TrEMBL record:
Residues 3-222 form the NAD-dependent epimerase/dehydratase domain. It comes from the Bacteria. This is NAD-dependent epimerase/dehydratase family protein. It holds the Pfam family Epimerase. Coiled coil: none annotated. It comes from Streptomyces maoxianensis. Belongs to the NAD(P)-dependent epimerase/dehydratase family. The lineage of its organism: Bacteria, Bacillati, Actinomycetota, Actinomycetes, Kitasatosporales.
Length: 299
């Protein structure tokens, strides 16, 4: 089996690459813009250029972990919306029988009812450019007619978590303050989120890539548990052995205020992929503290 992986230098892509390389009978090809990539490929190029790269790769599966979590609306659109659309068109021309596994985001859902786990049938109402562009990518994948599945990932955590998310950002702040037993100031931590270990996400990707037969078009990938950001923060403080103060200074981000509670219903993923998250949050936080993100690593 030839698997082409896009976004291998990111947080989720790196863990996915590690697991795919360990699979017997799999030839992993890394696609990207760097000279080290097996297949030179840029998602922001046109479908014709992408088709040429796919013809060279001859993949049986394409895994798209590439994406942006921050930046201008134009840049987010190029990578998160136009990129998947161009990839789907190119696959239709160059590798129509290949399976596509595409990583979506829980931000596509937007506000959800507190206490109610989100199913794949829940209405999508993204609040900002990131969620909107990720949803546009999902729509493109679903409309492509390809053998494709979108894994809608909730809040990834674990070793190498980047500072774009709360766990990685807080770990960096704790490291900065640890030498002086200083105070770490954060915004409001009352929002609840579904934190899932990046290695469990990678396991879901591997299962989706190697599953026999068609899969549902969208599958939620989360822990199935809502945890307050405050509990996560204090868990990371314990993992770090931090002796300073963690101080909530006021309002959190606009998204935390608007989306106060979010949790995945993972029933469909359990059924379709025979997958369940295996790592407890306490272990994810300990491993994050032991293995911080390299500088510049995106999601």
């Amino acid at each position: 089996m030839r698997i082409l992986l896009l976004g291998s230098t990111g947080f989720l892509g790196g863990h996915t690459a590690e697991q795919l390389r360990a699979l017997p009978g799999v030839r992993l090809l890394v696609g990207g813009r760097s000279a080290e990539a097996d297949i030179r490929l840029d998602l922001t190029a046109g479908p014709g250029v992408l088709a040429d790269a796919l013809l060279a790769a001859r993949p049986s599966v394409v895994v798209n972990c590439a994406g942006l979590v921050a930046g201008s609306a134009v840049h987010l659109t190029d990578v998160n919306a136009r990129g998947p659309a161009a990839l789907c068109e190119a696959l239709g021309d160059a590798a129509p029988d290949a399976r596509l596994v595409h990583l979506g985001s829980a931000a596509e859902y937007g506000p959800t009812a507190p206490g109610e786990p989100v199913t794949e049938a829940t209405a999508t109402r993204p609040l900002g450019p990131y969620g909107a562009t990720k949803l546009a990518g999902t729509v493109a994948v679903r409309a492509s007619g390809l053998d494709a599945v979108v894994l809608r990932v909730f809040n990834p955590v674990g070793p190498g978590a980047p500072s774009a998310g709360l766990p990685g950002r807080l770990a960096a702040e704790l490291r900065r303050a640890a030498e002086e037993d200083d105070t770490v100031r954060v915004g409001d931590l009352s929002a609840h989120r579904d934190f899932v270990d990046a290695r469990d996400v990678a396991d879901a990707v591997v299962r989706a890539a190697t599953a026999e037969g068609p899969l549902p078009p969208v599958l939620n990938i989360g822990s199935g548990v809502a945890t307050s950001a405050r509990d996560l923060a204090h868990g990371l403080v314990r993992a770090a052995g931090f002796r300073g103060r963690l101080e909530e200074t006021g309002a959190g981000s606009a998204r935390s205020t608007a989306v106060s509670w979010q949790c995945a219903d993972i029933t469909s993923a359990v059924r379709a992929l025979d997958w369940r998250p295996r790592r407890a949050l306490v272990d994810s936080l300990q491993d994050l503290w032991a293995r911080p993100a390299p500088a510049g690593v995106p999601r």
